[in-house]
Amino acid sequence: MTSLLFDPFDTPLQILDTSIPLDAYCKIDLSDTNPDLKDVNIALPEACAQYVEAVLQRNQARIAYGGYLEKRNLYAAGRFSDGPQRNIHLGMDFWCNEGTAVIVPLDGVLHSFKNNSDTGNYGPTIILQHRVNGDTFFTLYGHLSLASLEGLTPGKLFRKGEVLATLGATEINVNYAPHLHFQVIKDMQGFSGDYPGVCSEAELESFKRNCPDPNQILCL
């Protein structure tokens, strides 16, 4: 596991609507090795949403999470057309209802934001900058609602526990079933309002070093 610049956290942090308890979260496997997905075209948002709902019902849960470094067929429908096949997920996903509030897990300031509306991207996206024990890193929140970008200015302070945004609908978040993409980034490498959330196998080691496991912060 690639480590953060600082010591990992040891207390669970909520990143979605705080009225939803952590015991209402369950893990989900969207990897290409999951036999339950053998006959499911997971790249179709309707099929993906139906599978997520089945997992939630089976676990009597409200939020399904996971996905860091998963190799997925979710991107097999031509979402990415530039270069080698990009199918390894660099963040952590939280699958739940459109409109769910996104909560700031740590104090931070607004680095950048953008509606990344091109195929395969995040749709509305917010990136925060954090400083912990003298080290700087960034967190990315993708697949948000358009309203989440209103009134934002770089440098705006967000405190831990504040509502940052709400989740967008499928037609807003570039044809994905509603969910939050949460990613930790050590170095933005010149990006603003966007950063790759999926990579190819050839790029994996480089991206893994720059994008450590988000669960080192969330501790779910």
Can you characterise this structure?
Helices cover 12% and strands 26% of the residues. It is of the alpha+beta class. It has one domain: Distorted Sandwich (Glucose Permease (Domain IIA)), CATH 2.70.70. An 8-stranded mixed beta sheet has the order 1-2-4-11-8-7-6-9, covered by helices on one side. A hairpin with a 6-residue loop joins strand 6 and strand 7 (123-132). The two termini are 16 Å apart. The mean pLDDT is 92.
What number of structural domains do the residues give? Answer: 1
The CATH C-level name is Mainly Beta
Query: How many strands, which pairing sense, and closed or not: the largest β-sheet?
Result: 8 strands, mixed
Radius of gyration: 16 Å
Number of helices: 3
Helix fraction by DSSP (H/I, runs of at least 4): 10-25%
Large-scale geometry: globular
Strand content range: 25-35%
**What is the name of the CATH architecture?**
Distorted Sandwich
Strand order of the largest sheet: 1-2-4-11-8-7-6-9
Q: Give the low-confidence spans.
A: none
